Amino acid sequence: MEPRISFVTLGVRDFERARRFYRDGLGWPLSSGSNDEVAFFRTGGAILALWSRELLAADANVSSEGSGFPGFALAHNVPNKEDVDAVLARAAAAGATILKPGSDAVWGGYTGYFADPDGFPWEVAWNPHFPLGPDGAVQLPG
């Protein structure tokens, strides 16, 4: 199997609220492939999709019940340390909850976390060891 993540689909409780948060609040362009039930956002590689939590759970044949930490965090890396606080501020203005303000990380970078309106945690990180390439992709060492 080739190592690739093509889509990350978030099962959201309020589709319209989630679409507004990402499109209007964060300013992410909505794909014309979106419709009244699913939203697609290109993220410099993988696609972020928003879909009803109940429909996504039914599609995966699992229960839609549950709350708390989902066991993962999404990440948005930025090219400069100062950008972390700017992205956290924009997310908060759009309705996100700041989980952890920007702070120096033990591994030498700068990071903070916000939760989107459905509670999905997003890390915003500047990592001097893994810079962003010209296409915005994180450059991992070989």
UniProtKB/TrEMBL annotation:
Name this protein carries in UniProt: Lactoylglutathione lyase
Pfam families to which the protein is assigned, alphabetical: Glyoxalase
Domain VOC: 4-127
Keyword RNA-binding found: no
Top-level class of the enzyme under EC nomenclature: lyase
Enzyme Commission number(s) from the entry: 4.4.1.5
Record keywords: Lyase
GO molecular function ontology, one term from the record: lactoylglutathione lyase activity
The keyword Lyase appears for this protein: yes
Signal peptide: none
Source organism (scientific name): uncultured Chloroflexota bacterium
Domain of life: Bacteria
